[in-house]
Amino acid sequence: MSLPPLKTLPVFVSICRHLSISQAADELCLTHSAVSQSLKSLETFLGCRLLERNTRGMQLTEPGRHFLMAVEEGLGAIGSATQRIMSRVEGEVRLNLAPTLALRWLIPRMPALQAALPDVGLQLGTYRRDELTGRRAGLDMALVSAEPNPFERYPHYPLCPDRLILVAARGTRSEPLGQLLGHTPCIGVQDPLRERDWPTWLAANGQAQRDPELMFKSSPLAIQAAIAGLGLLVTHHLFVIEELQAGLLVKLGESVVAAEYRLVALAPGGISEPARRVIQWLQQEAAALECRWAEEESV
């Protein structure tokens, strides 16, 4: 990686802000000569002029404009990451997970987690997986459904299987699954992460492939549609635990293990002790969930 003298970059930004060597020197508490020499050193390294000097003052050249945008973006990102890290309090843990998983599974369990770990402050984020690589600073870990990339180089902690299940509103007529699928609308979710849910479940249960007739923007909306009796929905078990326990939804057919949920440690320098305790608590909660699942499946 070829980098210019890093100490020249804030000086360059200040000069561009004022379009004046003297005003930049005043802002940075440096001499006029030091600021001028810094700009010269940067231009020599880059092999081009970044600013033109004339009787009307200073103006950015075309390379200077492009370089300024890149420098401001880079320094801004470094500043934001620094602020996030410096503003963290002892015992704080930052966890990222999918919005629906946060809403339907983790947030209902937050009171129990806070009671078990009163000295740990868990902060939740809901960045999409493809955004995480650019926003990793400040995050301790992410809860992902077990595709390793782009996190394969980070430590992984297993949580529980990611099960796909077919659900319907309570009171749905009892009949062979093939017949029910033949005349009941199917509910789908318009999200790339959900587009394989129906095909995966149908194939594993030996049913003919079909496209959902009713489409919704998010899983919570699709779940509400299923509760209202608008059709059948293939969704993830962790999304509908409360509805199944309350009897608002019933499970049909066989569940399909599509992947595995894992906690990925993203913090540089290793996982902190508070984060390790959160991982252990979540693993215990997932283990209890697996025991209940096994009991329900054996009935």
Automatic annotation (TrEMBL):
User: Do the record's keywords include Plastid?
Assistant: no
Q: Which UniProt keywords apply?
A: DNA-binding, Transcription, Transcription regulation
Q: Which residues form the HTH lysR-type domain?
A: 4-61
Tell me one Pfam family matched here: LysR_substrate
Could you confirm whether the keyword Transcription appears in this record? yes
Q: Gene3D superfamilies from the xrefs?
A: Periplasmic binding protein-like II, Winged helix-like DNA-binding domain superfamily/Winged helix DNA-binding domain
The record's family statement is: Belongs to the LysR transcriptional regulatory family.
Name-wise, this protein is LysR family transcriptional regulator
Which lineage is the organism of this entry classified under, starting from the top rank? Answer: Bacteria, Pseudomonadati, Pseudomonadota, Gammaproteobacteria, Aeromonadales
